[in-house]
Write a sequence for this structure.
């Protein structure tokens, strides 16, 4: 019997500074907007993929649990790579996160980036990162960005496709991200369902789409120019516009907790007092504070003092997904 084809990969979550929310095409999982992100080094997903001759269906375990919806998304990505490799075997996929899953900490981003990197290596395909990002995007739009380290950019193209690639290496502008955890519980409405509901019901959705391209181009300019204050303004505006769309979705997508708002107020007070820091929040209650390295201890202390913050994680900017031993 031929040997199983096995590889392991590690990927880090990423946090968008100019957000993705909404889809152009549900079946192809094409985003309605581009996005700009930073990949974080403090948290990681480790995924082992083993294609086994004779195995008819994929078996997927995430943090030891099986889940039908996740398995379908994993199989859709694996099918694309199996086709490229001319392999029909089912795969055993084991993935674990060293941080809470499904709680607005971008576990699907690191998860699908690690998956395609491990599967590519197991099948001996050796595809370039840009191509793996296109496969990861089918699993989760934000995952395409975790193939790259530092600042990553996803742009919609006129032909209907997207391009994903690196914008700036982590060492070129080594910002820090301090994450305030306010709840480790999984969110009630995931991004996929939430985006569909926003498109169908939020009166602000069209305005979000129409104003997005200018934010993205401004974000790119400010990253390239290392202009922290200007990036802060664009990133907070993009985040709050996305949450305005979420809040005006029916039923409303209210991802914030009281501690989330208290963190924003603490960060605004710090910034008014001259500390270079800005906030962003994804589809969950956690607050991510992006700051210059010299500000980390002040930001950490301010967030840790907010009632309801259960843990503070301090992260640098991390590398793109990579193959690991195991
Ligand atoms: C709020 O990438 O999780 O984190 O493509 O449906 O899997 P799917 O959505 P996902 O959405 C991420 C939304 C966000 C903003 C962002 O990361 O840009």
């Amino acid at each position: 019997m031929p040997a199983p084809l096995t590889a392991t990969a590690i990927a880090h979550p990423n946090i968008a500074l100019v957000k993705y929310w909404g889809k152009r095409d549900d079946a192809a999982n094409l985003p309605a907007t581009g996005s700009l992100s930073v990949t974080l080094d403090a948290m990681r997903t480790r995924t082992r993929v083993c294609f086994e001759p004779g195995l008819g269906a994929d078996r997927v375990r995430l943090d030891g649990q099986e889940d039908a919806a996740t398995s379908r998304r994993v199989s859709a990505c694996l099918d694309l790579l199996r086709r490229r490799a001319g392999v029909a075997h089912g795969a055993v996929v084991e993935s674990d996160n060293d941080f809470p899953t499904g709680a607005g900490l971008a576990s699907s981003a690191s998860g699908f980036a690690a998956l395609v990197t491990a599967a590519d290596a197991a099948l001996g395909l050796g595809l370039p990162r840009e191509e793996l990002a296109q496969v990861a995007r089918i699993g989760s739009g934000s995952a395409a960005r975790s193939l790259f380290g530092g600042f990553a950019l996803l742009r919609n193209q006129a032909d209907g496709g997207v391009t994903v690639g690196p914008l700036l290496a982590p060492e070129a502008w080594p910002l820090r991200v301090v994450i305030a955890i306010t709840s480790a519980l999984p969110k009630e409405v995931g991004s996929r369902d939430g985006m569909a509901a926003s498109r169908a019901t939020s009166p602000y959705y069209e305005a979000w789409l129409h104003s997005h391209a200018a934010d993205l181009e401004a974000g790119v300019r400010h990253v390239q120019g290392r202009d922290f204050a200007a990036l802060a303004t664009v990133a907070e505006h993009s985040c709050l516009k996305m949450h305005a769309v979420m809040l005006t979705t029916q039923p409303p997508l209210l991802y914030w907790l009281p501690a989330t708002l208290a963190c924003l107020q603490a960060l605004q007070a710090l910034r008014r007092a001259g500390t270079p820091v800005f906030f962003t929040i994804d589809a969950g209650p956690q607050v991510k504070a992006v700051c210059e390295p010299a500000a980390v201890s002040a930001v950490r202390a301010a967030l840790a003092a907010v009632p309801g913050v259960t843990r503070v994680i301090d992260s640098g900017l991390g590398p793109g997904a990579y193959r690991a031993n195991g």
